Amino acid sequence: MSSETSSLDRFVSPARRELWYRSYRRFANQPMSVVGLVIVVGIILAAVFAPYIAPYPEHAGTFTDFTNAFQQPSLDHPFGTDDVGRDIFTRVLFGYRIALTLVAVVLGIGVPTGVMLGLVAGYTGGWIDTIIMRITDTFLAIPPLVLALAIASAFEPTLEIAMFAIASLWWTWYARLARGLAASQVSEEYIQAAKISGASTPHILFREILPNCLSPLLVKATLDAGIVVLTGASLSFIGLGVQPPRPGLGTMVANGTQYLPTEWWITVLPGFAIFVLVMGFNMLGDGLRDLFDVEVEQ
Amino acid sequence: MTRVGQLLRRLSGMVASLLGLSVLIFVISRVLPGNPARLALGAMASEQQVEQFAAEMGLNGPLSAQYIEYMRRLLVGDLGQSLQTRNPVVEDLVTKLPATFELISLAFGFMVVLGIPLGILAAQHRGGAVDNVTRFFAFATVSVPSFLVGIVFQLVFGYYLNWFPITGRLSSAYGEEVVRTTGFMLVDTLLSGSFAAHVDAWAHLLLPALALSFSGMGQVIRITRSSMIDVEGKDYIEATRAYGLPSWLVVNKYSLKNAFVPTLTILGLQYAWLLSGAFVIEIVYSWPGVAKYGVQSVLTSDVNAIVGVTMLIGVVFVTVNLIVDVLASVLDPRVGLAGDNR
After folding, report:
1. CA A144/CA B77 separation, integer angstroms
2. Given A93, B8, B133, B281, which residue has the most CB atoms within 10 angstroms?
3. From the list B17, B155, B284, which residue is nearest A141 (CB)?
4. How far off is chain A from B305, nearest CA to CA, in Å?
5. According to the model, what pLDDT value does residue B335 have?
6. ipTM, 2 dp
7. Which residues of chain A, if any, have pLDDT below 70?
């Protein structure tokens, strides 16, 4: 133990190490955040390794086995089987893959785009700021689910279109957040110092301002991941997202409603799976918010 | 800046957002693959009929001219004909709006009468078991997909307990005697003089409204709790306690009043967000409102109806946000109106 820490000492000052340790203690002391972290990491691992750990990997697609249709949850089929005899637990694991891909694509496009626009708007001000924020306001003039529906309606409904529709809306919040953060930093002394020493605008934006905005952005992105999952699931539930036989979680819920109330598990358990994932993201995000002590509007 | 100046600035921003939204929706509606006129008339229509219909709908000519025509129609409230119902879109919206309004208003009521007391309770028992349970509940409501809440309520209170009807606005038994006058079922049933039908309308409304209210409940609980705790620490609250005022008076009169502005802001925003939630809940409960109409128009590529529904929701959303800001700044003059401090 002591040899490890001494090798670390060469890179990390004791004060900083103390800070990390305290942050870790603070995070670990909140049971909800730890549970959130465990849920999110667990589900990500399960989704990544779904083809290896799912009990019936072949059930993720068009497989049918009518002799085993409508089986109640049991040891063989923890979540039961659906109307064509597929194992619902397997399909939920593959559904998580789709949900997490959606999160990665939407935030992967939305966060960098929004942050870049927001930083530029907040730092430069003037007419550039006005134009960028006007466009942002336009997108914020309507709930994202409604606009995503309108966009998705223009195309054949598929998972890819749903991703595109949601991703094209999601940058706006990050633009607003980054703009506020950048505007608040502009008058700080370290920015003045960088300017005087001749740093270029991109350098100031991305090397000076951005690192100081990371914690609110991280908190916002974690909390947002849950909302993206819910939006995607709602689109699929309505019929404009993932199409059967692909195992979208919202699609599975919608498909199951015709077998209510007797075969409730076909509907309720995939729905519950969505809930667990979103809850994980929210608990984790809330813990990070307390940890970094930042306020982010939702 | 003066208050009037701020208000004007805010209004111009609102108009600009709606103009932007109209451009966005115009682009979306013109991207639709296939000829909307052909879609509307069906495969049997002749080429000439399709041409004529396209001209009527303003689908010919260069895009700029099309946009001007589209804006002209929007401004005079002519949204064209729904391809699905064959009625003018405006007529469809007017028919369906009361159902949605009734639904989101009761959901809002649930959010207020359940969310605020839970928030106060959590603040009073800060750190205790009540606080933790409430916190978990708040988390659960923002994390659960609203279709799951809707379906579970249907299962438990509809199918198993048989307390409430599962879908629709009114039992067919009363269909004859209730005359549509206002479109609000709770009002129309009373006007028709049938108390039994009135009770039936309530029974249909309760489950979807409660399910819908869940989507915003967590936010309301959390903001009430945190603003109550903020206020608790203030000197004037200490002072009221030092005077020996009873705790319930301090909480209900002094703390709540001052904690109310942030809560009001969240409540207002949530009212607008309920419109979004309605898109799922109206489908689950076959509720014949604007949101269900919107979903059906999206599924059938009914261009005019899509434009109508999205613009309507944009207008309501932006207007509610403005009203909330004005109210908040009236209640607490320290809160500015200008949109530029966002």
Report:
1. 24
2. B281
3. B17
4. 11
5. 66
6. 0.88
7. 1-13, 295-298
For testing contact with chain B, the best of A32, A139, A149 (most B CBs within 10 A): A149
Quote the CA–CA distance of A77 and A87 in Å, as a whole number: 6
Characterize A161-173 residue by residue with b for buried, 16 or more Cβ atoms within 10 angstroms of its Cβ, and e for exposed. bbbbbbbbbbbbb
In the stretch 3-22 of chain B, residues with CB closer than 8 A to chain A read 13, 16-18, 20-21
B160 touches chain A (CB under 8 A): yes
CB pairs under 8 A between A and B: 151
Min distance A152 CA to chain B CA atoms (Å): 8
Q: Which residue of B has its CA nearest to A154?
A: B32
Which chain A residues are closer than 8 Å to B29 by Cβ?
154
**Lookup: tokens for B254:** 């002094």
A56 SS3 class: coil
| Average pLDDT of span B203-208 | 94
A274 and B135 in contact by Cβ < 8 A? no
For the ranges B164-173, B243-252, B274-283, the maximum mean pLDDT occurs at B274-283
CA neighbours closer than 13 Å in the CB half-sphere of residue B138: 25
Please give the distance of CA A92 from its chain centroid, rounded to a whole number: 18
pLDDT at position A17 is: 75
B317–A143 C-beta distance less than 8 A: yes
Q: For residues B134 and B130, what is the distance between their CA atoms, to the nearest angstrom?
A: 6
User: Which of A174, A183, A153 lies closest to A108, judged by CA?
Assistant: A174
Q: B137-153 burial by CB neighbour count: b if 16+ within 10 A, else e?
A: bbbbbbbbbbbbbbbbb
How much is the average pLDDT of B29-51? Answer: 68
| Residue B339 confidence (pLDDT) | 44
Residue B43 pLDDT > 70: no
Q: Which residues contact residue B181 at a Cβ distance below 8 angstroms, ignoring those fewer than 6 apart?
A: B187, B188, B191
Cross-chain residue pair A147–B31, CB shorter than 8 Å:
no
